[in-house]
Amino acid sequence: MTPHDPDREHDALARWTAQVLERQPALKAPRTLEDRVLAALDGPAPTPWWRQSIFRWPPAARIGFIVASMACLWLSVVVWTFPEFAGAVSATPMTVSALPGFAPVRLLVDTVSALQTTSSIVARAVPLSWWYGGFGLVVATYAMVFGLGAFGYRTFRRPPSLLPGTGPCP
Amino acid sequence: VQKPPTGTVTQAEFAAFMRAYQDMVYSTAVRLTASDAHAEDIAQEVFLKAYAQFAMLRDNPAAGGWLRTVATNLSLNHLSRYRKRWRFFSELANEDESGETIDLLLRPDRARDGLLEDLAAGHRAARIEAHLAALPDHQRVPIVLFHFEGLPYEDIAALLGVSIAKLKTDLHRGRAELARRCLKEGLDR
Predict the structure, then answer these.
(1) Between the N and C ends of chain A, which has fewer C-beta atoms within 10 Å?
(2) Residue A124: its pLDDT value, please?
(3) Is B4 left (phi over 0), alpha (psi -120 to 50) or beta?
(4) How confident is the prediction for chain B on average, in pLDDT?
(5) pLDDT for A68-80, tens place per residue?
(6) What is the rounded distance in angstroms from the CA atom of residue A141 to the CA atom of residue A146?
(7) What is the pLDDT of chain A when averaged over all its residues?
(8) How far A53 CA sits from the closest chain B CA (Å)?
(9) Does B22 touch chain A (CB under 8 A)?
(10) CB B177 within 8 A of CB B135
């Protein structure tokens, strides 16, 4: 029986891999690549950044968007948490609410206020144990779907790609 | 329309440049991403960037290295953008079967089930590429960067944002898994 020597084993494996891979020829680029590149060079202007994924936006635009979103979120939370704020806006004198452009804001505040009233009625009507039960159910369902996803991925995952001209891996 | 490079460039000139390097660029991208569709997209992006820099690259002997670096970086960006979510799943239950594989490699009279001596070289290479592509990202990428791109451990660890110890472990496990798959098919010589 050969004595166990991890360094020797690692070296042997590294040597074997180097020998096998250094003989691998470069893979042939698809014939379509050249046409695609030349067509892209002649093609229409690239999509402007604001129509691309947010991950491709310029950093300043991304930061601005995140700040604006946070501000909207904060405003929603304030309106939701402090009903007197919504009430104060609703009770604004007609002289102010008649200003051009104020009507949509008032409509928004009224809608939020109505939603808040409805949800607080529902929240009071539903027993606390139901809320805990519902929360537990959501967590359990999420965990189950996550577990099933992990199991399915490990069990049925195919190789990411099979190169042209090769069959399925054993 | 792409930003034209400085000086006059004919389409034929750039096409000739592309033909000289496209296999290398595509190979780098497909081995790193293990996806021919994504590799083609990445290769296209590499050449569009090359077009913008064509005045500098045209007669530059370092053009190949530049293209290879851009292809590597774009491929790694692609992997980190689209595959991070799968990393957790990929790294689950990766049994270390390297011991058994190494024993096979070290044994002088190792079994050669179904000797495939007459296997055509092209088919053999394709099978090895397929086995390489089937490795999980965290094993395949270090192998490609080390054995094909010739990068040192330090550079690979920095590129991948992992420690050298983790990199060596992934490399070892990837080599062992590749060897195990190849030995199974008699592709070991």
Answers:
(1) N
(2) 82
(3) beta
(4) 80
(5) 999 888 877 776 6
(6) 8
(7) 77
(8) 12
(9) yes
(10) yes
> Got the DSSP string for B11-49?
HHHHHHHHHHHHHHHHHHHHHHH--HHHHHHHHHHHHHH
Chain B nearest-CA distance from A59, in A, is 17
Residue A82: alpha-carbon gap to chain centroid: 30
User: Is residue A161 helix, strand or coil?
Assistant: coil
First to last CA, chain B: 49
- Which comes out higher in pLDDT, residue A170 or B66? B66
To the question of pTM greater than 0.90 for the whole model, the response is no
Q: What is this model's ipTM?
A: 0.72
In this structure, what token pair is assigned to residue B109? 């009279």
Question: Distance (Å, rounded) from C-alpha B8 to C-alpha B109?
Answer: 63
Please give the Cα distance from B46 to B64 (Å, whole number). Answer: 12
How confident is residue B170, by pLDDT bands cut at 50, 70 and 90?
A: very high
By Cβ distance, the residue of A9, A22, A170 closest to B106 is A9
Q: In the structure encoding, which two tokens stand for residue A77, read together? A: 């939370």
| Mean pLDDT along residues A96-113 | 70
* CA-closest candidate to residue B135, choices B74, B185, B180: B180
Whether chain A has a CB inside 8 Å of the CB on B71: the answer is no
Residue for token pair 């379509």: A32
Res. B22: pLDDT tops 70 = yes
Query: Which structure tokens are listed for A65?
Result: 């968007």
Report d(CA B187, CA B189) in Å as an integer.
Answer: 6
Residues 15-54 of A with CB under 8 A from B: 16-18, 20-30, 32-34, 36-38, 40-46
Burial class (CB in 10 A: 0-12, 13-18, 19+), B75: buried
Res B82: pLDDT: 67
Nearest alpha-carbon partner for B177 in B105, B85, B72, B111:
B105
Q: What pLDDT is recorded for position A166?
A: 37
> Dmax over Cα atoms in chain A, in whole Å?
97
The residue type found at B11 is: Q
Tell me which range, A96-100, A156-160, B118-122, B149-153, is most confidently predicted by mean pLDDT. Answer: B149-153
